[in-house]
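Deliverable D2.4 — example input (structure tokens):
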């Protein structure tokens, strides 16, 4: 992971420098999207109900936000054990939905209510990594503001803008874990994370096959039907199905699913998901490039 981090920081420095040379003094604000394992995200619903009516205003929302962020920070105190004195910082707090006395609203009503239900998205990251990225990117020259975002929430928002055919699932399996998100009506309403990914399983395959040549191990890891993948496939699908049970009954799961992993592992994931009768669409590097141009 340390080597991966060094590569990311070097790449960030090169990109920031290139932008400064190409468009000097023209770009003041930069947005950095962190992917696994450099953020932790949580979608949750909190409910408040009182016998006595209470005023639902912005002041109440701000207090709830501050309390929720503090709780989540305490849950993710130390993002990386191998970074001395590192601590978690908040990346995002988003209100995805608000219900007042059972009815959906978009903003505080400034009226007395009896029940309040909030669907929230929170994400945290590493203070040390975020600080270093700020030093590198802002230090490149003209950048004055830097905003951090989590990959799953950002990707869900982009897909919602581009994909108009209903609800869908998102799977990000590009790092050492798999993040699964449920998007309904354009909002990331639920998510689940488990500590398995094709990259992780491929490394386990290599450990199991010490007597096989390096070339043969590479070929085996790119072949989804190779026997080395049998147990890994079962474990990953079991975890994936467990994730989906958090999203509701089987009949409510969307069949369309967007999948992103390292390019040579995408066919493996697609193969597995088709066995569960899903309709996977690969988020390729070309697709991401087009997304960046569109954005």
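Example output (designed residues):
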């Amino acid at each position: 992971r340390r080597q991966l981090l060094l590569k990311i920081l070097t790449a960030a420095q090169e990109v920031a420098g290139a932008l400064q040379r190409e468009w000097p003094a023209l770009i003041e604000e930069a947005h950095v999207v962190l992917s696994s394992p450099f953020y932790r995200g949580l979608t949750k619903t909190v409910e408040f109900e009182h016998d006595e009516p209470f005023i639902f205003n912005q002041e109440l929302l701000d207090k709830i936000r501050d309390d929720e962020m503090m709780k989540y920070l305490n849950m993710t105190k130390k993002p990386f054990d191998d970074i001395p004195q590192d601590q978690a910082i908040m990346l995002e707090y988003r209100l995805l939905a608000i219900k007042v006395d059972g009815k959906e609203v978009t903003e505080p009503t400034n009226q007395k209510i009896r029940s309040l239900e909030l669907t929230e998205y929170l994400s945290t990251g590493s203070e040390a990594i975020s600080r270093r990225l700020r030093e590198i990117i802002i230090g490149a020259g003209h950048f004055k503001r830097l905003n951090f975002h989590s990959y799953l929430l950002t990707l869900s928002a982009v897909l919602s803008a581009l994909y108009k055919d209903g609800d869908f699932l998102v799977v990000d399996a590009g790092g050492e874990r798999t993040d699964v998100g449920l998007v309904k009506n354009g909002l990331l309403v639920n998510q689940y994370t488990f500590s398995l990914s094709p990259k992780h399983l491929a490394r386990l395959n290599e450990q199991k096959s010490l007597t096989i040549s390096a070339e043969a191990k590479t070929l085996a890891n790119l072949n989804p039907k190779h026997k080395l993948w049998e147990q890994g496939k079962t474990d990953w699908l079991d975890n994936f199905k467990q994730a989906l049970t958090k999203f509701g009954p089987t009949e409510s799961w969307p069949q369309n699913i967007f999948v992103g992993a390292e390019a040579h592992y995408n066919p493996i994931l697609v193969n597995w998901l088709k066995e569960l009768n899903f309709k996977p669409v690969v988020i390729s590097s070309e697709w991401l490039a087009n997304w960046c141009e569109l954005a």
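The chain has a mean pLDDT of 83.
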